[in-house]
Amino acid sequence: MKLSKDGKALLYITVFLTIFGIIMVLSSSWPTAVSEHRAWYYYGLRQGIFALLGFVFMQFTGVYDNENYKKNALWIFLISLILCALVFTPLGKEINYAKRWIKIKSFSFMPSDILKFASINLAAAIVSQKINKIKTFNEGFLRMIFLVAVSGGIVFMQPDLSTAIVIIGSVFCVFMVSGLNVRYIVSTLLTTLVFGYIAIFKVKIGYSRIDRIIAFIDPLGNLEDEGWQLSQSLAAVSNGSFLGSGLGMSKQKFLYLSQAHNDFIFAIICEEFGFLGALILIIAYFAFLVCGIRIAMKTKYIYSKLLVSGILFVIGIQAYVNMTVVTGLIPPTGLTLPFISYGGTSLMIMLGLVGIILNVDRNNEEERK
């Protein structure tokens, strides 16, 4: 695969983040694995296996014709919706009062991870086919509203407000890059904020989101409930200081901080590698996004530009939100840290999305020569 300098840099950063993720999953998960009577390397080994499968998947998406995604965008979207609907059937697996997983024997996955790509892909396909009319009310605004309502709505009902917001935001990103009338975007954002307020403060589906808000405002005052997790996360960040306690030397991972290898793995990174390690990780994500943006800007195909933009939004916003949750800047959301948090489906899909970006870069290089 012939890549540009930006493509190579993006690939190297992806490999670095993934390998670092395996190491951190291994470091942060072994107390949990032992407490569950598993081998201490259980989660780390699984993450490594999924990483290998993910790189194979990335190789496939890196050479597969992206036009096929465009041609089958509606079918991919409909299949993703059906998979998301299956979580409400006996196939759905409930974790922490939410049905976000499909479990078939020992295999489980989150269909909303697939819907992220499907929504971006459909939005990019719609816009690229209607680029001259996208600024109009019917062709632009109504199509965006429909896509946002359907994809965001079904995920919200699981309930998974944070993933719904990521999906809605990625669709907004695609339409904004396409040049949709600003007043349509502003009006839709305001409408979304109103419904978001209702969703957070007025609607209860399985658990109260207000509890998370209260815990965020005063974590020490809610140590017996939602505040415990955030308090332990902040303790881990504080313990790390500037240089950290060293790889494997975290204290909070010893069952004080739940989800230490998943949603809150960044807290363990801060504890073991300190502010300096966290800063290097943030720079790596920033460099990843810069390389991706440069690749998107080089392509002359509208669909490819929009597809890459949406993918970058998903990866960037997930990394940002995860880090800000761990450091107590925003309430807990449940979003994982891309390439690093434990999770086979998420890792494989993220690596597959990187393959799509590299595919666009490869096409750019072939056309340039």
Automatic annotation (TrEMBL):
Keywords: Cell cycle, Cell division, Cell shape, Glycosyltransferase, Membrane, Peptidoglycan synthesis, Transferase, Transmembrane, Transmembrane helix. GO terms for biological process: cell division; peptidoglycan biosynthetic process; regulation of cell shape. Its main location: membrane. One of its GO terms (cellular component) is cell division site. It is a multi-pass membrane protein. InterPro entries: Cell_cycle_FtsW-rel_CS, FtsW/RodA. It is found in: Membrane. The chain crosses the membrane at residues 9-28, 40-60, 72-89, 140-157, 163-182, 189-207, 264-290, 302-320, 340-360. PROSITE patterns: FTSW_RODA_SPOVE. Peptidoglycan polymerase that is essential for cell division. Belongs to the SEDS family. FtsW subfamily. This is Probable peptidoglycan glycosyltransferase FtsW. It comes from Finegoldia magna (Peptostreptococcus magnus). The lineage of its organism: Bacteria, Bacillati, Bacillota, Tissierellia, Tissierellales.
